[in-house]
Amino acid sequence: MLLGSFSTSAATPEQVDAALRKSKEYMYSKMDKVKYWEEVPVMDEKAGSHSTSGRQWGGLTAISVYALLASGEKHLDPKLNPAVEWIKKQRIIGNYALGLRAQLWTFLPPTPEVKQLAMKDRDYLYKGMHRNPLPKAGDKDRIGFYPYWFNDDRTKMQPGDKWWDLSISQYGVLGMWACEQVDGVEVPIDYWAETDKAWKAAMYTDAENKGGWAYRRGAGAGNELKPGDTHEMVKPTMTAAGVATLFITQDYLLQYSNFGFCKGGANNMHLEAGLAWMDKNVGKLLGGGQFYGMYGVERIGVASGKKYFGTVDWYNVGADYLVKAQAADGSWGGSIPNTCFAMLFLARGRSPVIMNKLEYSLNDPANAKINLPWAQRPRDVANFSRFAGKMSEQYFNWQVVNLRVSPDDLHDAPILYVSGSKKLDFTDAEIAKLREYTAAGGLILFNADCADEEFVKSIVGPTGIGKKLFPKYEFRELPAAHPIYVDQVYQARNWKTKPKVLAVSNGVREMAILIPDADVGRAWQTRAEKTKEEAYQLGMNIFYYAAEKGNVRYRGATHVVKADPKIKPTVNVKVARIMVGDNPDPEPWGWQRLSAILHNQAGVGVKVEPVKPGEKKLVSGPTGFQMAHLTGTGNFTMSAPQRDEIKAFVNGGGTLVVDAAGGDAAFADAAEKELAAIFGGDASAIGPIIAPDERVYEWAAPFKIAKFDYRKYTRGKLSGKLNVPRIRAIERAGKQRVFYSREDISAGMLGQPCDGILGYEPETATAIMRNIVLYVAYNGRPPRPTTSPATAPTANPAAPAAAAQ
């Protein structure tokens, strides 16, 4: 497969798929004949409060169903549905078990039944947390935390009911969060405030342990870990629970803050301390059988948007460990809970990243004191991602990235979101990375927080970064008939207030979009889904455009391909990029990617040089060019010397490929006239269409093109057969020497899905041009492959909307 490779981890998407498949088989093999996973058929009243056969009865089935649903299983599947229906009907009193069962409601259709079940669990968990006034005098540090279980009558304390710890409490909070995700189910704000206060008070503040949590710790003087407190040492698992819990409480408490003022981002000192602790200690949780802890890492990574803890790519390292540690029977450690935690890590952690948010600083000394200029709305992209998942019935991650990494790392997501309210002043090196990101298919989405004019001018002004990023192109107001407005799920004509959108295009696709005054980030931050629905719908339309109707990849899969230095080319092809017209090379990165693919798969070295015909540089033969590529957008006309030089190049044995970049009609019309003028014939019928079984398509595996796919946009615009190629050829001396496509190939060679392009799907376009190069390189004889292309899946199949924490 041409699209998609995996980053540095040894765990490829294919390996993760296989691990999840094996784990599902294991889980179903452990299902009881009555379709649940419990150790005993009814609760054992004599068992312990934390036992899965005692007060936590129901928890094994809950976590099993949760893990299977999160891994893509459907609730109506005959194998799983009996367990779903069974767990709905059970009386569950243990807070571990109840918190896990509540996760299921986010995966099920929001029916009245599901709403009632979520409300019932919410009420039980709300009453079950230790709250003021306490039934009797006791340890006040337990306020805001959970016991293992409780009586419905909270005025009667049970033996051991005054117990509390952070392990059980995180599941109470998780359960409440999940219930609140169901439409129409609300959790009182005092619950989140009390929870936030309790967990912050339980965090250690001494220099050595700052940012860590233990299983139990009250709010002492400075809350320091004192000598002899070995039973209350900081625990990596509880620190993960603490950080993840504070992300949940922050989401609700920040809703009520005033985000109308743009004075920089506000620090959550407890969260920052917890994340700093994780940066230093995440290695203690990734591997070594720490499945419970790995689930906590995944929750933090997803909630915070962090791709790295310190320098550790948490998902790559964790996935690599889990793939290698899985037992032959598909389990991890022969344990249902451990297997479920591993499944949740793999499935949720690899979910597609819908949007990256750029972390940056202001280099201008006048703005140097502004704190976190990029994070004035700290949960804007997180909230939008959750909304997008709900609307798409698909789970999405989001990430915070910076420009200290390689541009390749930015391609985890189709969109890079940049927000702020001060002048952007990126360095030349940062500009170069952003330019490379967009050249390789990425889209930058700028949002002016508080509609700040200084931010806008720093992008589109005469000396703005737009000029540096895209020197050949200009920002303009997005046309009313643009695919973002008319070809996506949400129709702009239905919006009460249409946000102003500026964008810059290379003639094929949008490379950057600026929202100058609608401030969608504020609407996302405050979850104004109903009062500012156009802000969410515009964001969704931009996402659907950038990812071609939601064609996103698993985290870690990428369209970026690099040449393997261990492979040495055995054949070389020199390609001339024909430079005619006003926009002759809109997608130059496509040839860079295709060259790496040919190098890796066939040992073919490709050298591409721009050539302006008519200057006597387009010469065929052993010392000249073997192939030439003409593409672009807009109308163009060649001079007589230019036509003569191209004709001589082809007649001398060179091969010419012509395609309309983006499927641009003006370029295609002009190209047909020029080809007719150069080679004769009718401009409306340039050569016969090549049959799908001809040599150029019929190379031996892995170079055989067995399937021809067109982009979704194309399938809605063209008639006729859309499962066969439409490329035409002109022969010279019995061999095909000119290949012409009215439909786009050039943009497809980028490998990145994008809407609004009339042409072949990226994989098909790349395969077509690859095979033409092979046809030229080997003079029609099949080459010997050096490596087989990856077969890993690159897109995430649709799944029910899932929990985002």
From TrEMBL:
<feature type="compositionally biased region" description="Low complexity">
    <location>
        <begin position="787"/>
        <end position="805"/>
    </location>
</feature>
<protein>
    <submittedName>
        <fullName>DUF4159 domain-containing protein</fullName>
    </submittedName>
</protein>
<dbReference type="InterPro" id="IPR025297">
    <property type="entry name" value="DUF4159"/>
</dbReference>
<dbReference type="Pfam" id="PF13709">
    <property type="entry name" value="DUF4159"/>
</dbReference>
<feature type="domain" description="DUF4159">
    <location>
        <begin position="373"/>
        <end position="546"/>
    </location>
</feature>
<feature type="region of interest" description="Disordered">
    <location>
        <begin position="784"/>
        <end position="805"/>
    </location>
</feature>
<dbReference type="InterPro" id="IPR008930">
    <property type="entry name" value="Terpenoid_cyclase/PrenylTrfase"/>
</dbReference>
<feature type="domain" description="DUF4159">
    <location>
        <begin position="588"/>
        <end position="776"/>
    </location>
</feature>
